[in-house]
Design goal:
The protein contains 11 helices and 14 strands. With 322 residues, the protein is of the alpha/beta class. The chain has 2 domains: 196 residues, NAD(P)-binding Rossmann-like Domain (Rossmann fold, 3-Layer(aba) Sandwich), CATH 3.40.50.720; 99 residues, Alpha-Beta Complex (UDP-galactose 4-epimerase, domain 1), CATH 3.90.25. The radius of gyration is 19 Å and the shape is globular. The protein binds 2-amino-3-ketobutyric acid.
Length: 322
């Protein structure tokens, strides 16, 4: 199989960094980035970029045929918090894009598909600690409903049509090159930017809200690892639980204070608190670890150190110009 890859949603938080990593592995010309808008993070990365609406199956097909694409990573989605403001739009974007790509795979236009699910599939009735792979799944957000429905569509296309679709349930993903948009776990990214820029942060979740999280480096590693895994090792065709670290806003603030002692945090919970309260605190991902050898590298302390070092280095040249 030729290894030409198409990323749908390459201007988003995960899509951008995933594109850069895949280009470093497979070569720039073999990784086609696409989105409905230009990507900031990819501005300095040479390599093909196509404007594509991920809900437009014919537009995706044109790009697939033009570049002889064999693998699609579908990263376009509306996340939990924005989804609660625009429930129908969230459902339409999240479902139409997935079904378009699954149909392209069913019709043999592409050979392998990656589609992310989320811890948002879980709801208030799910066991909160060490949440198992198989458990009570009653999501309370439209994003969660779209993700669990998507998981079953993936499994259905695999069972009925042999589509090779692979998926993981991302926890909150923490990055410094790109900012997320519209998620409930976004505070764990915003906090770093505010700590560097302003020395303080007003958090929209309560100080003791524990959530499963992961550094972007590990998320990108997991995504590529599941796509490169031997087909026979993928025993779950809905979506795999995936876990790395968990912390509360207070614990993250304390970790940041080790590097920026004057950093101050205040709390003003909003509608996102209810969403966070409905999600697990920790996740059991033993199946991913057993099936395709997943392991994470970053803990809260190495992640914090790495993010602050990079954001400070990024800020330094700006300061020197003043
Ligand atoms: C969100 O907060 O909506 C996302 C997610 C956990 O899928 N980061």
């Amino acid at each position: 199989m030729s290894d030409t890859i198409l990323i749908l949603g390459a201007s988003g938080q995960i899509g951008g960094e995933l594109t850069l990593k895949l280009r470093s592995i497979y070569g720039k010309e073999n990784v086609i980035a696409s989105d409905i808008r230009e990507s900031e993070i990819l501005q300095n990365s040479e390599g093909p970029f196509e404007i594509v609406d991920a809900t437009d199956k014919e537009a995706i097909l044109k790009v697939v045929q033009k570049h002889r694409v064999s693998q699609v990573y579908l990263l376009a989605a509306m996340l939990s918090a924005t989804g609660e403001k625009y429930p129908r739009k969230a459902w339409d974007l999240n479902m139409t894009s997935l079904l378009a790509v699954l149909d392209l795979a069913k019709e043999n236009h592409v050979e392998r598909v990656f589609w992310p699910s989320s811890i948002a599939v879980f709801g208030p009735t799910t066991p909160k600690e060490n949440t198992p792979q198989r458990t009570i799944i009653e999501p309370s957000t439209v994003y969660g409903i779209s993700k669990i429905s998507g998981e079953f569509w993936c499994n259905y296309y695999h069972e009925k049509y042999g589509v090779d679709v692979r998926s993981i349930r991302y926890p909150g993903i923490i990055s410094w090159k790109t900012k997320p948009g519209g998620g409930t776990t976004d505070y764990a990214v915003d906090i770093f930017f505010k700590a560097i820029e302003e020395g303080s942060y007003e958090c929209f979740l309560k100080e003791d809200t524990r959530l499963p999280m992961m550094y972007m480096e590990d998320a990108v590693k997991a995504t590529i690892q599941i796509m490169e895994a031997d087909k026979n090792s993928i025993t779950t065709r809905t979506s795999y639980n995936l876990s790395a670290i968990d912390f509360t806003p207070k614990e993250l603030a304390e970790e940041i204070q080790k590097h920026i002692p004057e950093f101050a945090i205040t709390y003003k919970p909003d509608f996102r608190q209810e969403i966070a309260d409905s999600w697990p605190q920790t996740i059991d991902d033993s199946q991913a670890r057993a099936d395709w050898d997943w392991s994470h590298q970053y803990d809260i302390s190495s992640m914090t150190k790495d993010i602050i070092r990079n954001l400070q280095a990024q800020k330094r040249p700006e300061m020197e110009l003043l």
